[in-house]
Design goal:
Blueprint lengths: L1 E5 L6 H15 L3 E6 L13 E5 L13 H16 L3 E5 L1 H16 L10 E6 L2 H4 L8 H10 L2 E4 L2 H11 L6 E2 L15 H10 L5 E6 L8 H14 L2 E6 L5 H11 L5 E5 L4 H5 L4 E4 L8 H8 L4 E4 L4 H4 L6 E4 L4 H12 L2 H15 L4 H16 L2
Parallel strand pairs: 1-2, 1-4, 2-3, 4-5, 5-6, 6-7, 8-9, 8-11, 9-10, 11-12, 12-13
């Protein structure tokens, strides 16, 4: 198949999943064309069958705001014409599904009928549905774009039900969960990880870790407060990976709590496997999480997860087996759970094994074929 993929190229989960999906499909022989304003962050090196098309941005005095949706639609039309694409897979409904709809309608008016009509598949990832789309100014466009897609998927049952409820969607939505390369994301013990561990925890302290884009809904300040309570009972260190609008406030909170010597802000990192391999617990106290890809990456490396009980997290993190879940903002309970695991070696080892075992249910080799089957179903309509 010849497939165009449009996603946000940043470190967020939707961009990561879209990029890893494209790479996996290319290795299976499909021709993949990424269309975005920048190279996706996980698209490293040359991979046969993968092509990148940049959406050129420009400024014009008449326009006070960038017209990305229109420029993206035009680029989709161009790439489809030149490469005879069969399908555009839009990750994140706004603006990608909207632009894909426009591209499809433009191509319908062309004299040449490209592959009997370009098809549009939209994958819903989370905040496009739970936050952005609920804004009154976006809601009609969101609903229209979803319903006009030829096929729609969601990354969790929670997100599927939320979409149907919030937007009164009549269209069928298929759940295809996020996935992971379990051969890549597995606990590594070598000289490099030994060096990392010695650097972060010179006195063999326990290590807590969190990775996100530091948006408000990730509640990274809660991560710091949970760690502070744990650190009062057990010598621990905290590793924070990622960057975003809340980082400055988080650094300020660390100074206020006077725990700077125990907290490391690493910013964006590519060596995730090695860093997760030195961690003992992963903290995810989010207020909104439709799946929890970063938690899955941690679990695949044998790291138990302490998370909030919202969204799709309970579908991933099994309470009392792969980690613990608690209500949003219940920092005392989350800290208690962390202390319980870090002070009970037998229980910790069981949770670590179960976390890895649970991650294997979401392995790339099982999930990517679900997308292939879905594409074929849509193309055969």
């Amino acid at each position: 198949m010849k497939i165009g993929i449009t996603c946000y190229p940043t470190y967020g989960g939707s961009g990561v999943v879209a990029t890893e999906l494209g790479k996996a499909l290319a290795l299976k022989g499909h021709e993949i064309h990424f269309i975005s304003y920048a190279m996706p962050s996980r698209l490293h090196g040359f991979i046969e069958n993968i092509f990148y098309h940049e959406v050129e941005m420009f400024s014009y005095p008449l326009f006070d705001f960038p017209l990305y949706s229109l420029l993206l639609a035009s680029k989709m039309v161009e790439v489809t014409k030149i490469n005879n694409l069969e399908l555009i897979h839009a990750h994140y409904a706004i603006p990608h599904a909207t632009s894909a709809f426009m591209a499809r309608e433009i191509l319908k008016g062309e004299k040449k009928n490209f592959n009997n009509g370009l098809k549009v598949v939209t994958t819903l990832h989370g905040t496009d549905i739970t936050l952005i789309g609920l804004e009154p100014s976006f809601l009609p466009t969101m609903k229209f774009s979803i319903e006009q897609s030829d096929g729609v998927t969601a990354v969790s049952n929670f997100l599927r039900e939320k979409t149907i409820t919030n937007y009164q969607i009549k269209k069928e939505i298929e759940v295809i969960p996020n996935f992971i390369d379990i051969n890549r994301f597995r606990r590594v013990e070598n000289k490099q990880t030994q060096c990392y561990r010695k650097n972060f925890a010179p006195n063999d302290e326990k290590i807590l870790i969190h990775t996100s884009n530091f948006r408000p809904l990730k509640r990274v300040q809660d991560v710091i407060r949970i760690f502070n309570e744990v650190n009062k009972k057990i010598p621990t260190k905290l590793i924070l990976i990622g960057d975003g609008p809340e980082r400055s406030d988080c650094e300020r909170l660390v100074r206020e709590l006077d725990i700077g010597k125990d907290v490391k802000f690493l910013g964006k990192q590519d060596s995730l496997v090695e860093l997760l391999s030195v961690a003992d617990l992963f903290l995810m106290p989010s207020q909104s999480e439709s799946f929890g890809l970063s938690a899955l990456e941690a679990m695949s490396c044998g790291v138990p997860v302490i998370s909030s009980s919202i969204g799709g997290l309970p579908e991933l993190n099994v309470h009392g087996e792969t980690g613990y879940i608690a209500e949003i903002g219940d920092l005392e309970r989350m800290a208690k759970y962390a202390i319980e695991l870090l002070t009970n070696e037998k229980k910790y080892n069981y949770f670590s094994e179960q976390a890895r075992h649970r991650a294997e249910f979401f392995k790339e080799d099982d999930i990517v074929p679900l997308y292939e089957d879905f594409y074929r179903k849509i193309l055969d309509k």
